[in-house]
Amino acid sequence: MPVAVGDYLRAYFTREAEERLRDSIPNKIREIDDLLRESLFDLSTGIRRVRQCADGLTSQLESTIGESKKDGVSPLQLPIVTNEVLEQAYTATRPFILQLIEDSQILRMWVQLNIPRIEDGNNFGVSVQEEVLMETTKAEMEASSMLDFFGDYLMYRAKVASKICKWPTLSDYRRALADTDEGAYIRLRMNVRDIRNHYSRLYDIYHKNALKLRMPRNEMENQINIMY
After folding, report:
1. In terms of residue numbers, what domain contains 60?
2. Where are the transmembrane segments (predicted)?
3. Alpha carbons 208 and 217: distance in angstroms, whole number
4. CA dist 88 to 78, 124, 131, 138, 143, Å?
5. Mind listing the pLDDT tens digit for each residue in 149-181?
6. For labelling alongside 62, which of 40, 78, 127, 165 has CA 20 to 30 A away?
7. How is residue 129 annotated by DSSP?
8. 43 vs 37: CA distance, rounded Å
9. What is the CB neighbour count within 10 angstroms for residue 161?
10. 0.85 exceeded by the pTM?
11. Is the residue at 223 inside a domain?
12. How far apart are the C-alpha atoms of 150 and 145, rounded to whole Å?
């Protein structure tokens, strides 16, 4: 990488990372805390609303199937309505997932561009950078898996709903739909808490090791170093 390009990228990612650590990440932690206090993510209230919505959907579907038989309409052509509570929860959660991925990428690139050349001598600062880099990569990967989860949930839910259309008299399928929605809601709530915890962890580890991240070899060889 040419020196001019390397310096430009290093300055850009340094500016972006420091702005996030100074302003954006603390604000995100407060926003997520506020979100978790809302009734949408109150565990007992949320589970009750999710199951009520799922039970209401299956009852409505059964009624529609009964009418469709009289009209000669195939049940497989009937619309399957999503769980409104799950939609609200995912709509509230998704922006935080995407932002965590972006913030983690910025922080990761900042650390990577500040890793010095491999040399003999005191490399403790470099090992600190590598440890912080692992923590940042972990946050990015787990946030990406959160996006995959909701798509998998929708696919599985669609299969259960299609079986309700085929065999509306089997109560186990109706129960399975409600359990699927409840499990997805609990997982979404856990995701929100995990996002908050990732941000808190990143904020803490970056601030505790700020000097080592910027200047990994800027200390005396014999100085005792403690990461945390």
Report:
1. 3-214
2. none
3. 16
4. 23, 47, 37, 27, 19
5. 999 999 999 999 888 878 877 889 889 999 999
6. 40
7. H
8. 10
9. 21
10. no
11. no
12. 9
